[in-house]
Amino acid sequence: MPASKILMITGDFTEDYETMVPFQTLLACGYTVDAVCPGKKAGESVATAIHDFEGNQTYSEKRGHNFALNATFDSVRAEDYDALVIPGGRAPEYLRLNAHVINTVRHFFDAGKPVAAICHGAQLLAAAGVLKGRTCSAYPACRPEVELAGGVYADIAITDAVSDGNLVTAPAWPAHPSWLRQFMAVLDAASMPETNAA
């Protein structure tokens, strides 16, 4: 059973699938996942938004579920976690204004820990200044932010994901199978004991 402890940073109007599917999948695979939101406590909820592709120039947005948080943002310490998950949706656009969130994201990159971000999650990565020279996928409307932050935008199919070292990213929820498979491979590699070459 995996021992990794994963932090998920989310917020109101996070994308429904991009929050609930990875949360439940990682739990089902034996990982510990703490879902937190600044300003909210364990047991409180965030409102989700359903983004869908219905033939318009951009996605449509509808009210989704209430997603229950299982940890309190003010109580968590990034040092206690092995990996980070950043869902997309509307939340990253305002979460990136929170200095504690930005510092938390930076911790995972400074420590070389696995990070999975999907869709608009790249907005948090760009704001944290962790994309310079890194390949990153995101919802296509976030491409300018990825590139302005010094990242290399991965223009891939909506069902694909891309890994760059400890970072696994994807354009949107249709990529869940690839995104989660790649993220779990990075988690497994990070948890393997190092062998001495002596």
UniProtKB/TrEMBL annotation:
<dbReference type="Pfam" id="PF01965">
    <property type="entry name" value="DJ-1_PfpI"/>
</dbReference>
<dbReference type="InterPro" id="IPR006286">
    <property type="entry name" value="C56_PfpI-like"/>
</dbReference>
<protein>
    <submittedName>
        <fullName>DJ-1/PfpI family protein</fullName>
    </submittedName>
</protein>
<feature type="domain" description="DJ-1/PfpI">
    <location>
        <begin position="5"/>
        <end position="184"/>
    </location>
</feature>
<dbReference type="InterPro" id="IPR029062">
    <property type="entry name" value="Class_I_gatase-like"/>
</dbReference>
<comment type="similarity">
    <text>Belongs to the peptidase C56 family.</text>
</comment>
<dbReference type="InterPro" id="IPR002818">
    <property type="entry name" value="DJ-1/PfpI"/>
</dbReference>
